[in-house]
Specification:
heterodimer, A: 349 residues, six-stranded mixed β-sheet, two-stranded antiparallel sheet, 33% helix, 14% strand, B: 453 residues, alpha/beta, Rossmann fold, 60s Ribosomal Protein L30, Chain: A, 3 domains, three-stranded mixed β-sheet, 13 strands, structural constituent of cytoskeleton (chain B), cytoskeleton (chain B)
């Protein structure tokens, strides 16, 4: 998986408030059986959403926009996208008529609007967004009770529409943060909703936990309230901590720039790199960290997207790692963080 | 008479494809080392058993492919078609989209009943294509969800729908350090259910085949494909046509029936093991010669000492002397791990098979006391060499060889069950704790029967 990477971005809209972004991607094993023998060529896909201001690197946890776009076989592609339109799905390296099986929810519009103006505008359409104007103010109760009740029917309807496009719905993937208002509050409300509306479909949650040095004062309250919901209603939780991500990024940075072995590290193999970009943009502070999370989720789902001699699907991961219903928190690790370009250098064991 | 293969789950489909590949390659090969007439008879018998003719002239395998997710079946079908020498029927497969999630209960209680009609229809269609049905050969693994759970259900359905046909289940015993944490639960549930509906269980252990690949075939990076090819070679050496003792002029028409008749005299003892000798990498074949005497000596000791392959055999183990008292022979057995057999079948393929003496296998001390060696031992021969080996011998044996692995698996499953770990995943789909307990009881019964041979 060394060459194909993709970015995940954090958002810092100009008004300085931290926004929570919730994206929900609905998987589906929707396979066009028998007709599509040829594999599509590998297509890199980069999502670039420029950051608006230069907030300090210390606001690490808040916003995550995690978009998984990777396909090298038709089978794998249809897991995450659906074909909407008559023309070819990919033409000259650009996505023409693929729509992501995703729902983007945020109580503040700036972030979602930026996505719709960026290179991903064709992949999402307006029917997949739910936004409001004022935000949740880092308050779990506002996200859960106020916006939950207000948007309940809207969310259910949009979920049903997206689910109807799938031949066979396998699981829901929820990505949010725990420290803010929308992500944790409205996010756990949606989790509740999914359990009511689609009880047999697995719910995988990727949660970004606040680190010790975050500056949202109410993040402990938000996290604890959200954890209670996760305990009861999620099938599997993958916690991610901002501080560890930061450490990894620093380690790589140190390795690349240290001079001793730095020159021999393959630049495209970094877990944080952005190979094959569609346009040249400077690296922003959270790109690297989000890229690690994106790589993690990519590798987790790779067995479902590609054929192999021993396939391990997501529901198998859940089956094997969850011995008792409430003990469903999985710790994830990733290796290697980079590969060395010079084959004569002995590899680390 | 024809055998219909039912390939279940990822493991079943991958192995099934290798088996048909090996059989087809052997039949088409020019290393028969026998007369043309013999070769043609062999070819005809084999084709009747495993393939049916299609309009295009390419033989179509008599197989039904079943899996709960589509990737493996599509891969299997395309690899077979690409070979150009044989293929699967385009209609004889069934797959769903979502998989079984390594959950036996999901395969047995959910996918089984839901898809019973469709799967049995496919099987019926394959059966109708046969002139005479010898029986079913199902290939599955025990550790997963589809192969084990759905496989147990399908075996039951086959038994109900075809009560007079033979069913031979080929079961893959998972690695001891396998990748599926609940494999012991799945194995216990599968074995206890298969014991009721199947006629015989032919077992291949992943650990053993892995060792064969590493030590005998000298493969450095062992992939599942290598393992599957060794398994396919061993299965081919059993199922390819051979002359039985009664019908020495033409090939046996009833392979499964003959197998069951010789090896499963009592319904309590259904576990069969397979040993094949010699096994070596293909490029060493040209430089090796063997004598039947040497091969059979090794094979016999492999049986007695419960060795899995021809290297590392413990030559110290000897069968007990016939005159010794019961208690001392019992203790000697325990000390030296002597492998008592119920029944054995030796299959010889290649040059000079008519001159081979198999008297050493008729030794009464190898067998349990309640069966006469005359009935317990059988041999099949054919002068036609198999798969480029000038001489090869296979031993299918109903003996205590699987006792230790079975004990291991049941022990581990019981430990896990004592703390009720993972049980909620099974209860979710309708397998309650009583079902687990029933399975444990059934397997303990089997273990004690085999121990007291």
């Amino acid at each position: 998986m060394g060459e194909e990477t993709f970015h995940v971005f954090l958002f810092h809209p100009p008004d300085g408030l931290l926004r929570i972004f919730l994206i929900e991607i609905v998987f589906c094993n929707c396979i066009l059986w028998g007709k599509h023998e040829a594999c599509c060529g590998r297509v890199h896909f980069k999502v670039f959403i420029t950051l608006n201001n230069k907030k300090s690197k210390r606001e690490l946890y808040s916003n995550i926009c995690c978009l998984i776009f990777y396909y090298s076989s038709k089978l794998g592609m249809l897991l995450f996208f659906r074909s909407a339109g008559d023309g070819p799905d990919i033409y000259k390296g650009k996505i023409c008529s693929l729509k992501a099986r995703a729902l983007l929810i945020d109580m503040e519009e700036g972030v979602v609007n930026e996505i719709l103006q960026g290179p991903l505008r064709d992949v999402f359409d307006s029917k997949q967004l739910i936004t409001d104007v004022s935000g949740s103010g880092n308050n779990w109760a506002v996200g859960y009770k106020v916006y939950g009740c207000q948007y309940r029917e809207n969310i259910v309807e949009k979920l049903r529409k997206t689910a109807e496009h799938c031949d066979c719905l396998q699981c829901f993937f929820i990505i949010h943060s725990m420290g803010g208002g929308t992500g944790s509050g409205l996010g756990t409300f949606v989790l509740n909703l999914l359990e009511d509306e689609f009880p047999e479909v697995y719910r995988f949650v990727t949660s970004v936990y606040p680190s010790g040095e975050d500056d949202v004062i109410t993040s402990p309250y938000n996290s604890v309230l959200a954890m209670k919901e996760l305990n009861e209603h999620a099938d599997c939780v993958l916690p991610i901590e901002n501080e560890s991500l930061f450490d990894i990024v620093n380690k790589i940075h140190h390795m690349v720039n240290s001079g001793k072995l730095g020159s021999t590290v393959k630049p495209n193999s970094l877990v944080t790199s952005s190979a094959g970009t569609t346009k040249k943009v400077q690296e922003k502070p959270f790109d690297a960290m989000n890229n690690i999370v994106a790589n993690l989720l990519l590798n987790l789902t790779s067995s479902a997207r590609f054929e192999g001699s021993l396939n391990m699907d997501l529901n198998e991961i859940s089956m094997n790692l969850v011995p008792f219903p409430r003990l469903h928190y999985l710790v994830s690790s990733l290796t290697p963080l980079y590969t060395l370009a010079d084959v004569n250098i002995p590899s680390r064991r | 008479m024809s055998i219909v293969a039912v390939q279940l789950g990822q493991c079943g489909n991958q192995i099934g494809q290798e088996v048909f590949n090996t059989i087809c390659g052997d039949v088409r090969g020019t290393h028969g080392l026998c007369s043309k007439k013999e070769n043609e008879a062999y070819h005809d018998a084999c084709t009747e058993r495993f393939f049916s003719e299609a309009e295009s002239g390419v033989p179509v395998a008599r197989a039904v492919l079943v899996d709960m997710e589509p990737k493996v079946i599509s891969q299997t079908l395309s690899i077979a078609a690409r070979s150009g020498h044989w293929k699967y029927n385009d209609q004889s497969h069934f797959c769903q989209k979502q998989g079984s999630g390594n959950n036996w209960a999901n395969g047995y209680s959910v996918h089984g009943p839901r898809n019973k009609e469709v799967i049995m229809n496919l099987v019926r269609k394959e059966v109708e294509k046969c002139d005479r049905l010898s029986g079913f050969f199902t290939i599955m693994s025990m550790a997963g969800g589809t192969g084990s759970g759905l496989g147990a259900f399908v075996t039951q359905c086959l038994r109900d729908a075809f009560p007079t046909s033979f069913i031979l289940n080929h079961v893959i015993w998972p690695y001891g350090t396998g990748e599926v944490i609940v494999q012991n639960y799945n194995s216990v549930l599968t074995l206890s259910h298969l014991y009721q509906s199947s006629d015989a269980l032919l077992v291949h252990e992943n650990d053993v085949i892995h060792k064969i690949c590493a030590q005998l075939m000298h493969i450095k990076q062992i992939s599942f494909r290598d393992v599957n090819q060794v398994i396919a070679h061993q299965l081919g050496s059993v199922f390819q046509p051979a002359h039985t003792a009664e019908a020495s002029l033409h090939y046996s028409r009833n392979p499964l029936g003959d197998l069951m008749e010789t090896l499963v005299p009592h319904p309590e003892f259904k576990m069969l093991g397979l040993r094949n000798i010699p096994q070596m990498p293909e490029n060493s074949l040209a430089y090796s010669t063997f004598s039947w005497h040497g091969l059979l000596k090794h094979l016999r000791q492999m049986l007695i000492a419960n060795a899995k392959m021809e290297e590392g055999i413990d030559w110290q183990v000897r069968p007990p002397c016939p005159g010794s008292s019961i208690s001392s022979s019992h203790s000697t057995n325990k000390l030296l791990h002597f492998n008592t057999s119920i029944a054995n079948l030796v299959i010889l393929r290649g040059k000079d098979t008519h001159s081979v003496d198999l008297g050493s296998f008729r030794d009464p001390s190898l067998y349990t006391s309640w069966l006469n060696p005359q009935d317990a031992f059988n041999e099949w021969k054919t002068p036609r060499a198999f798969n480029k080996y000038e001489k090869s011998a296979s031993l299918v044996s109903n003996s205590q060889f699987l006792l230790k692995p079975l004990d291991n698996v049941v022990g581990k499953a019981w430990n896990m069950f004592a703390s009720k770990a993972y049980v909620h995943q099974y209860t979710k789909f309708g397998i309650e704790e009583e079902d687990f307990l029933d399975s444990f009881t059934a397997l303990e019964q089997v273990i004690s029967s085999y121990t007291n041979l």
